[in-house]
Design goal:
Length: about 170
């Protein structure tokens, strides 16, 4: 059995050396908020945080990760959907079918930690996720709403882990 730290908990899993993190999250840990879209790092539906950075989990072999690395999925982003990005998403009714949205939110929440007031160019460079419903304009507006609303203070964007670290 190998171990991963996911959403603040140590979780055990079994996988071949090349099994992507995405499949371990969805099929063994029941964290199905992270979606499979393309499997080739193009769509961003599978985006999670690893040590605070947005990563496409379809391209990361789960066994290549150390159990000291902090993985956060959409289920661990906040309690009750209260992360500033989730609040902005709700305020602007961003999702349509919703399939791409957890990956979008994980990409945006990582961006705001490094750029609390991103420009449109920053957003274009960092959030390359694909949305088949075409929610791009509303995604952009919601990012600016989160940034304007003061919801980008470090404390609000940080994810606290059980060992008292934060990413
Ligand atoms: S499923 Fe990972 S980028 Fe599309
Ligand atoms: S909301 Fe449907 S794919 Fe993005």
């Amino acid at each position: 059995m190998a171990k991963l730290n996911v959403n603040g908990k140590d979780r055990e899993f079994e996988a071949a050396a090349d099994t992507p993190l995405l499949w371990v999250l969805r099929e063994q840990l029941d964290l199905t908020g992270t979606k499979y879209g393309c499997g080739i790092a193009q769509c961003g539906a599978c985006t999670v945080h690893i040590d605070g950075a947005a990563v496409r989990s379809c391209m990361v072999p789960a066994r290549a990760l150390k159990d000291s690395q902090k993985i956060v999925t959409i289920e661990g982003l906040s309690r009750n959907g209260t992360h500033p990005v989730q609040r902005a998403w709700q305020a602007l009714d961003v999702p349509q079918c919703g399939f791409c949205q957890s990956g979008m939110i994980m990409a945006v929440s990582a961006l705001l930690k490094t750029k609390p007031k991103p420009t449109d160019a920053d957003i274009d460079a960092a959030v390359t996720n694909i949305c088949r419903c075409g929610t791009y304009n509303r995604v952009r507006a919601a990012i600016h709403t989160a940034a304007r609303g003061g919801g980008t203070r470090k404390a609000e964007l940080s994810i606290q882990h059980a060992d008292r670290s934060a990413t």
